[in-house]
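Readers outside the structure-tokenisation community will struggle with the description of the input data as it stands. For illustration, here is how one protein appears when written out as sequence plus structure tokens:
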Amino acid sequence: MMTRRWAVIVGVWVMAVGMAHAQSVMVLCYHTFLGKPHIDTDFSISEFTQHVQTIQAKGYRFVTFEAMTKGQVTGSRNVLLVIDDGNRTAYDAYQQVLKPRRIPALFAIYPGIISNRRFAMTWEQLQTVLANGSEVASHGYFHEFLSEAFKAKRPQDFENEVRLSQQLLTKHLGIPIDLYVYPFGVFSVSGKQLLKASGYRYAMTIQPGPTLIPLSRNPNPLQLPRTMLTRANAQAVLGRL
């Protein structure tokens, strides 16, 4: 009788552990949509459409980072799309591919170029994507390495990457910024200390793998995993979903 009872208890525990491990999100990182095959991190709008259709066909749902922080995401068939840098083609991809399908994206932005470079998005475009359910995170001020070497060489610029970026995004968009996306995926002890001191709660790397839900299950909230898609790995990454 006791053996059977323990077998039931163990069975329930194993099931619960399995369900807990199943709570995750694949965070996929894109950059530009120029349609230039010689740029490894670039895809055409048509290719991006195919990627989105593949993800949908596999039964995945597209989630927001806010939903991840609020515990509103369940299961393992979840994808968060992150578009780095703020190139103007990111807005084209949003308008042509994501918005018609009501798919949110997280735009990782370095404000040093916004409304300031011909190749960059504008503040008005960022306000538009926010109004339609997408999100914005800091990607530095001018996309510099958040490394110890950069801090030693240019300490004020190091601080600007974290604090000035946050201040400008909040000023122009009217939203709090507590998520940082490391430029080039580079982080450091000093960088994480500055992020904490500046009120950031989370940061994303380009170390591949699923992000666990709730976010507290991840070893370090300032080193959340994220998979960068390139022409070399996109087929394999999407195939493994």
The chain has one domain: 23-240. The first helix runs from residue 2 to 21. The chain is about 40% helix and 15% strand. The beta strands are 24-30, 61-62, 78-85, 106-109, 135-138, 179-181, 202-204, 211-212, 227-228.
